[in-house]
Specification:
three-stranded antiparallel sheet, about 65% helix, 14 helices
Length: about 350
C-alpha cells in the first residue's frame, strides 16, 4: 500500500470541499422520513466542512500574528503543523462525516487551548516558552506518527493471528480497561500498536505534558488504529452490505434492526457480534457503506474509552446507511493534479 499523502493548507481546503459535495450527493440519495431530517443531515455535513475551514483560517491568523516573532513564531509554526495534520487525518481516515464532525470538535478544543496558551505566555519567561515549545513539537510529531500508522500493512500478520485465535476486541485490550485513567488507556493502545509491528507513537513514553484535551484527541486516534489492527482481517461480505442497505433504504431503520440483519447475513461468522457490526459500520464501513446517526460520536467515544467492555442499547437509535467519499483516494487525486499543473 502506498504511503499516506500529505496535503498543504490549500489542498486541505480543496479536499474538504470535494468531500462535502460528494457527501451532499450521497445524502440526497437517502430516502428520509421528512424534509426536516434531510436538512439536518445536510447541515451536519456542512458543519464538518465549515469546521475544517475555520481551523485553517485560525491557523492562518496565528501565522500572521506570530510569524515574524523570533520567540513565539517557531511555536506557532509547530501548532499550525499539528492542526493541519489533524485535519488531514479527519479527511482521509474518518470517512463517516457524522464521526468527523465529532472528531473535529476534539481537534479544535485542543488547538484553541494551545493557541490561547501561546497568546498568553510571556515571551520573556524562558521556562514557560521552553515548556510550550516542547509541547508543540510533541503534539506535532505525535499527530504525524498517527497519520503514518493509519492503514499500515506492517501489522497484517498480527491481524491474521487475532482472527485465527478468535480474540474479541475486549480480549485484545484487557478486561478492566474501563477502570484505567485515560493516560493508562493510551498506554495500553500503545502496547498493542507496538506488538502489531506498527510501533509506538510516543517513542519515549507518555509524558505529563499531555493535557485533558490532548489525551482525548490521542485516545481517539489510537483507538482508530487499534481497531484497524483488530478488524482488518475480519471482513463483512457483500451480502451483509446489501442487506443493511436494503433495510435502511426507505426511512432508515433502528440500529438494532440493522445489527440483526447484518448478523443474519454474516451467518454468525467468527468474531461477528453486535459490538463488531456497530463499530465497523460506524468507523470503517461495510464495503463503503456507513451507519449514519446522531449517536455515532458518543458511541465510538464510549467504545474506545471502555475497549468495548460496556453495554449500550441498539433499540433507541434510528440510523441510515449510505456510501461515503473515500478521502484517501481523493487526496491522492488532488496531490497528483497539483503536481501536473506545476
Amino acid at each position: 500500500m502506498a504511503g499516506c499523502i500529505s496535503l498543504d493548507a490549500e489542498q486541505l481546503r480543496q479536499l474538504a470541499m470535494v468531500i462535502h459535495y460528494q457527501e451532499v450527493d450521497s445524502i440526497h440519495n437517502i430516502k428520509f422520513e421528512s424534509e426536516l431530517e434531510l436538512a439536518k443531515y445536510l447541515a451536519d455535513s456542512r458543519a464538518g466542512y465549515d469546521s475544517v475551514l475555520r481551523l485553517l483560517d485560525e491557523s492562518r491568523e496565528l501565522d500572521h500574528k506570530f510569524g515574524i516573532d523570533q520567540t513565539r513564531g517557531p511555536i506557532a509554526c509547530d501548532i499550525i503543523s499539528y492542526i493541519q495534520k489533524a485535519i488531514d487525518v479527519s479527511l482521509q481516515f474518518v470517512k463517516n462525516y457524522r464521526l468527523r464532525v465529532h472528531y473535529l470538535k476534539k481537534v479544535r478544543a485542543h488547538a484553541m487551548a494551545l493557541i490561547n496558551e501561546l497568546q498568553e505566555v510571556d515571551p520573556k519567561n524562558v521556562t514557560n516558552i521552553v515548556r510550550l515549545a516542547k509541547d508543540a513539537v510533541l503534539y506535532r510529531n505525535v499527530m504525524l506518527e498517527y497519520r503514518r500508522k493509519h492503514q499500515n500493512p506492517v501489522s497484517r500478520n498480527f491481524s491474521k493471528w487475532i482472527k485465527e485465535k478468535g480474540l474479541k476486541f475486549q480480549e485484545l485490550v484487557e478486561r478492566r480497561f474501563q477502570d484505567l485513567e485515560d493516560v493508562q488507556k493510551l498506554q495500553v493502545y500503545e502496547e498493542i500498536m507496538e506488538a502489531s509491528g506498527r510501533g509506538r507513537v510516543f517513542a519515549n513514553g507518555l509524558t505529563k505534558a499531555l493535557k485533558v484535551a490532548g489525551i482525548a484527541m490521542f485516545l481517539f486516534n489510537a483507538g482508530m488504529i487499534v481497531w484497524d489492527i483488530y478488524s482488518s482481517e475480519q471482513k463483512l461480505q457483500t451480502a451483509t452490505r446489501h442487506a443493511i442497505v436494503a433495510l435502511a433504504s426507505v426511512g432508515g431503520a433502528m440500529l438494532g434492526d440493522i445489527v440483526g440483519v447484518a448478523l443474519s447475513s454474516a451467518l454468525l461468522a467468527a468474531g461477528v457480534s453486535t459490538f463488531f457490526v456497530v463499530t465497523v459500520g460506524i468507523l470503517t464501513g461495510i464495503l463503503g457503506a456507513f451507519i449514519l446517526g446522531e449517536f455515532v460520536g458518543w458511541l465510538i467515544d464510549l467504545i474506545f474509552s471502555s475497549a468495548g467492555n460496556t453495554s449500550f442499547s441498539t433499540d433507541l437509535h434510528r440510523c441510515y446507511v449510505a456510501v461515503m467519499p473515500d478521502g484517501e483516494t481523493l487526496a491522492r487525486q488532488i496531490a497528483h493534479q497539483n503536481k501536473s499543473t506545476k
